[in-house]
Amino acid sequence: MAQPLARDVAEEIAKLHGVCIRPVALRRLDMTTGKSEVVDVPCGSPLESKCPPCAKRNRQLRMAQCREGWHLDEEPIITPDEATDGQRWLVEFRADMQAKRDEEEKAGGDTSDLDAVLTGLDVEINEAGMRGNVLGRTGSKRVRSTKRRQDAPDLPKRKMASTTLGRTFEAADGRTYRPSLFVTLTLPSYGKVMNGAPVDPDTYDYVGAARDALHFSKLVDRFVQNLRRVAGYDVQYFATVEPQKRLAPHLHMAVRGTLPRAEMKQIAAATYHQVWWPQADEARFEGDRLPIWNDGYVDPDTGEVLPTWDEALDQLGDEPMHVIRFGDQVDVKGVLAGSPDADRCIRYLSKYLTKSLGENLDGQAQRDHAARFVDALRYEPCSPTCPNWLRYGVQPKNAKPGMVPGCCRSKAHKPEHLGYAGRRVLVSRKWSNKTLAEHKQDRRTWVLEALGQADEPTDPHRYVWQPVRPGDPDVSPIGVRLLRSIAERQRWRAHLRRLEELSATPQAA
Ligand SMILES: [Zn+2]
Ligand SMILES: [Zn+2]
Q: Which intervals carry biased composition (Basic and acidic residues) (predicted)?
């Protein structure tokens, strides 16, 4: 360790051993012993492009979570959303760190380390809070005129039973079967596509594709609502949003329980979502002629105050800005609990989870296609607060000085998201008894048990965590830190192997 290893070499070795390559260093003060040391925390990124080992681990956890809930035969016991001590602690700690970061920024200092800490904490908090508000969004509180309220689609409706379990079937041989569904939902066509790129880019409906991607998660919400109404029970699902080759998001969904295939197709066909936003087809302000801030945005020529977001909503006509539906391609597959088929579906479901939506571009034609998609997204309003509304003569919600259309910084406009900024994994509240954090804990407990060590719950107040200052002498060069983690991983592996060998050796009489 005397010679610091080149970072890229250490990274390659770390990847081979499944060790995080972008660890976040934190100073940990042990309140019991008074000891203070610098500890590396895994970055936890779900994306391979950021950290392959963490992405792989994340995908495996998701697969375990999917498997756990798919064919449950007993109602999961859900203790609802009350924050655990651990969660509360995480949130409080994050608030402290945010305050420190803001102070640092005010003082003109370097905030990059604190930003890294905050990012890591956000991942932890999101995972800890996975159960609960599953789709992570709440509907608008505005009361809309009945004229604009979305009709319930024309679908059969069963009486609601208070169960989350699907039906079982008994076969002639007396065995009980527990069938479930694997569903794939796709967006409509925007023009003919070959090898993931439009045959005729000039007629390909990029605006339609962009708006569909932006509102895709709402359509999924609607689908679940309709599915439950038709099924007549509290249907549970584990779904992933993944990119198609043409770069549109689509949905794979493991559904607990079963419905007739024709009914699933009927539900998909009847599901739609209307976007009641102001128009965004004709630009009123562009180039150098942009609204200016004068305690609110005003027309640069006349000084007339632009309608605020709420005023613009009050003035909406009878037509929604956009209607999103699924395409004709609906794939419904019956799957039996515990079959190799079920395993195959779970692998398929998580196949692209480690890739961002706009990754994996194949050839020049597809790269051009992605670039045109990003162009179409550039001036498309992504949310009520998007600065792009200024282009269409409306003040964004919570307008503030400095907003420039075409320069929205939210995720949806970025090449790696291609319009879809929502969660990649959607898990219904009563899928299994466990959150992702609990699945993680399972693995840890398993390893510790195998090693013959008790897994004592850690006291959330035992440690005080602090970000490390740039140039902290206790933070070794990254190559050394990676090597240290690799050595630790190897020790665990060797220990586990020895235990396995011991249990495999026939006992001498
Ligand atoms: Zn990592
Ligand atoms: Zn935006």
A: 148-157
The predicted-structure confidence for 94-145, as pLDDT tens digits, reads as follows 777 777 777 777 777 777 777 777 776 776 666 555 333 223 333 444 555 5
First to last CA, the chain: 47
Q: Which element (helix H / strand E) includes 447?
A: helix 436-450
Ligand number with the minimum distance to the CA of 397: 2
Question: From the CA of 134, how far away is ligand 1's center (Å)?
Answer: 25
Asked if residue 274 lies in contact with residue 320, where contact means CB atoms within 8 angstroms, the answer is yes
Q: Which ligand is nearest to the CA of 410?
A: 2
Give 374 Cα–ligand 2 centroid separation in angstroms. 12
Residue 461 in this model has a pLDDT that exceeds 80? no
CA–centroid distance, 20 to ligand 1, in Å, is 4
Distance 422 CA to ligand 2 centre (A): 13
Ligand 2 centroid to Cα of residue 324, in Å, is 19
432 and 396 Cβ atoms separated by less than 8 Å: no
What sign does the dihedral 252-411-375-309 (CA atoms) show? positive
* Alpha-carbon distance values, 22 to 13, 25, 467 (Å): 13, 9, 15
Q: Looking at residue 144, what is its pLDDT?
A: 53
pLDDT on residue 402: 95
What local confidence, expressed as pLDDT, does residue 308 receive? Answer: 96
| Domain coordinates in residue numbering, the chain | 6-62+436-500, 85-128, 169-281+319-373+408-427
CA 74 to ligand 1 center in whole angstroms: 36
Q: What is the mean pLDDT of the chain?
A: 84
Q: Report how far residue 191's alpha carbon sits from residue 246's, in angstroms, rounded to the nearest whole number.
A: 10
Neighbours of ion ligand 1 (CB under 5 A): 20, 22, 42-43, 51, 54
Asked if the model's pLDDT at residue 415 lies above 80, the reply is yes
Considering the domain 169-281+319-373+408-427 in this protein, what is its CATH number?
Answer: 3.30.70.1910
Dist. CA 463–CA 449, nearest whole Å:
24
Is 88's pLDDT higher than 80? no
Distance, CA 127 to ligand 1 centroid (Å)? 15
d(CA 125, CA 120): 9
- Taking the CA of 45 as reference, the closest ligand is 1
* Beta-carbon contacts of residue 184 (< 8 Å; ≥ 6 apart): 250, 251, 252, 253, 329, 330, 331
Measured in Å, residue 422 CA sits from the centre of ligand 1 at 21
Q: How many CA atoms lie within 13 A of 326 on its CB side?
A: 25
CA of 376 to the centre of ligand 2 (A): 12
Residue type, 208: G
